[in-house]
């Protein structure tokens, strides 16, 4: 093997979230025993980016950096590239390749369709015309990242019989979950399916569980169904595996919306570099 893989997780204040990423990596290793896969985190963990790059550089002269991240916001566009540039200076003999993030595409749509079907089943398959759907993302100061959630809502609307599919966010931006629920109830929905747009558990998943419990108490006449986050779904493994194969076979990577622009340069000039 002439390459190694560095899987980059976000990291969580809740240890269970980091443990799930490690478990994800173990499952991925089992699927590809011929690949050497290391793990590091952007924040809230023991092995962060610099240490991860250094470990991976010891294992091979070619390192494929794979972000285990749904949306391209500051972490994917700025923070990882900044640390990657420093790693290239520390290890000039190593070729570092940066794979695209997971993104909003057919793989995520497939997961969401299955999640919605499961939530509807838990509600005894009510009429989708009177059942609203809320896709609940983390929220970002990056409009493109927020737009990916909106894109998935539209795609899900196109391929379902639900007439009302909204988006909401747990932080940073708006609308928040309660506002979206209020809107759906005013529009006559008698059931609400909430689909978390997250990869793994963490403090925000725990918060969502509590929020849904509060909403159920606030609106006892409405039935709420809560979906599961995406992390261990087969489409995630398949997407990351294809990212690796594309780089091995020297396929041109999918362009991020910020590629070819001076996004990072402008942000840095105005003091908006991502630091912890």
A few lines on this structure:
With 276 residues, this protein is α/β, with parallel strands linked by helices. It has 9 helices and 8 strands. Strands 2-1-3-4 form a 4-stranded parallel beta sheet, with helices on both faces. A 4-stranded parallel beta sheet has the order 6-5-7-8, sandwiched between helices.
Describe the structure.
With 276 residues, this protein is of the alpha/beta class. Helix content is 46%, strand content 16%. It contains 9 helices and 8 strands. It has a 4-stranded parallel sheet, with helices on both faces. A 4-stranded parallel sheet has the order 6-5-7-8, with helices on both faces. The longest helix has 17 residues, at 15-31. 39% of the residues are buried.
N-to-C order of helices and strands: EHEHEHEHEHEHEHEHH
User: Distance between termini?
Assistant: 35 Å
Strand percentage, roughly? 15-25%
The oligomeric state is: single chain
Alpha carbon gyration radius: 20 Å
The shape is elongated
Structural class designation? alpha/beta
Strand order of the largest sheet: 2-1-3-4
Helix content range:
40-55%
List how many beta strands DSSP finds.
Answer: 8
Number of helices: 9
| Major sheet summary line | 4 strands, parallel
